[in-house]
Amino acid sequence: MRPQEKEFLEKPIGKLLWKQSIPAMTGMFVITLYNLADTIFVGRGVGTLALAGVAVSLPLIMIIGALAQSFGLGFASIISRALGANDYKKAHQALGNFFSVSFVASVPLIIFGIIFLRPILKILGATPDIISFAFEYARVVMFGAVFFVVASGGNAIVRAFGDAKRAMIGMIIGAVINLILDPVSIFVFHMGVAGIAWATFIAWFCSSIYVAWCIFGGGRHLEIKKEDFKFKPALLKEGAYIGASSFARQASGSVMMVILNISLAYYATEISIAAFGIILRLTMLVFMPIFGMLQGMQPIAGMNYGAGQIDRVKDVVRRTVKISTIFSGGAFLIMMLFPAQLIGIFSGDKELLAVGKDLLRVFVLAYPLLGFQLAAGGYFQAVGHAGEALFLSTLRQLILLIPLMLILPLFFGLHGLYASFPITDVFATVVTYFVFKRSFARLHKPKPAEVPESIEMV
């Protein structure tokens, strides 16, 4: 057993959780900063309509992110549990299959997206005033899909091996490159939203190169063979099953964005679309600590579950739930107290400020509940309980939110559309609590078939 794996199985949970989570938080915080920088530079350097165009393109990015997260988290869960059981052969095969499926799945997405981009953007809610901005941005970003999948999904793989610091560096590299290129492309070369897109493309490319180096080089010396890259149906099925919850969450989020953009264009104006784009960016920022905590928790829970150390699994999950709830409560207070100041960072447009301030306060009403909701979903993924993870992922977006977004505006107009978000979060949290409580109480050591015999590393 390697030192990093021994640490995961023996080090006190409290210290271990923070050691794994702080690098993840740092990396994700920097990534969110460059996402915010994109929005700020577009709003300040190009205009409100350009902001709306980028917001309309967001569902496409979310679909790419859904692929990346489903592949990354699915195979990372397999790898961490295999390492906990000393099954290095399975870990290597899962790693090889991750890279193979990432390339095979990304290429058709790129081709389809580029050929049918303009009609897709119209379906996503692009109005005549903003479609040129959306097309200019999305056309470039689609070319970088494969690099995004490798960079984002591969980052989860690096964490599964216990390299939290290297995973953090991989995220920071892309963020720093983007932060440098954004202002240069807009204010020096006057490239508009296309410049922002090219900056994102280059950042994804550099991050993917670094992640590949972390996995195959960098002193790791993994004994991966060519055969490991051949598709293994059992591994693909397991990875897809576990990662399905991440894909469902982000893909349904993409569908939600489409319905939202169309509804905002119908019940309001492009200003509302731009305002909601800003709010989603802000949401990413305030929830980064929670996502970082989940990324720190999952390999710890997965590896200890694979080793049959259930008490340590429960300990790390309980700590994660408590800390995540504190973070989500803090996010609620910040957004309720300073909505105008937060929206004002992105634009000085008075109408945008007025719309965004009111929308933000309604949007965050149930935020104190989301820390637990996210932590519970992360727990199910970590221990390989894909069925519960998938159910909870689809519950919030597909089963509750999207129907409410379609029904409530018929009776309450724009206010009904806004209110659908906190109402959804209240109901989703109640259901999540009972599903989590039942599973957590019954958590037991993996069956013998789930824990392969040790295979020594060559």
Protein described:
- With 458 residues, this protein is mainly alpha-helical.
- It contains 17 helices and no strands.
- The protein has helices at 3-10, 13-45, 48-84, 88-115, 117-123, 131-143, 145-160, 164-188, 192-216, 233-267, 270-286, 288-306, 310-337, 339-344, 350-363, 370-382, 386-442.
- The longest helix is centred in the C-terminal third of the chain and has 57 residues, at 386-442.
- The two termini are 12 Å apart.
How is the topology of this model organized?
Layout: H1 3-10, H2 13-45, H3 48-84, H4 88-115, H5 117-123, H6 131-143, H7 145-160, H8 164-188, H9 192-216, H10 233-267, H11 270-286, H12 288-306, H13 310-337, H14 339-344, H15 350-363, H16 370-382, H17 386-442
Helix pairs in contact: 2-3, 2-8, 2-11, 2-12, 3-4, 3-6, 3-7, 3-10, 3-11, 3-12, 4-7, 5-6, 6-9, 7-8, 7-9, 8-9, 10-17, 11-15, 12-13, 12-16, 13-16, 16-17
Brief digest:
The protein is mainly alpha-helical. The chain has helices at residues 3-10, 13-45, 48-84, 88-115, 117-123, 131-143, 145-160, 164-188, 192-216, 233-267, 270-286, 288-306, 310-337, 339-344, 350-363, 370-382, 386-442.
